[in-house]
Amino acid sequence: MRSTAITHWKKVMPRVAVALLLLLLAGCFSNDEQWHAKDISSLMPDLQFDLIGSNGQAVNAEDLSGEVRLVFFGFTHCPDVCPTTMVQLKQAIEQMPNELQKDVRIVFVSVDPKRDTPEQLASYESFFGDRVRALTGEEPQLRELAKRYRTTFGYGTPDENGHYDVSHSSAVYVFDQRGKARLLIRDGLPTAEIREDLITLATQAPG
Amino acid sequence: MFSLEILLPYDFSPLTVIFFITVLGLYVTALRLMPADERPGALRIFTFLLGLGICYAVMQTVFDYYSQYMFFVHRGQHLILHHLGPFLMALANPLPIIRFWNRQIPERVRPSLAPFGWIYRAFQQPFIAAFLFVGLIYFWLWPSIHFDAMLSRDLYWIMNWSMLLDGMLFWWLIFDPRSPARSDAVGYGKRMLMLALVALPQMFLGAWIVFNRGMVYDVYEVCGRAWPMSPETDQLIGGFITWVPSAMMSILGILIILRRAMHEDSKLTGKRDWKPQESHQ
Question: Which of A7, A107, A179, B74 has its CA 20 to 30 A from that of B4?
Answer without folding.
Answer: B74
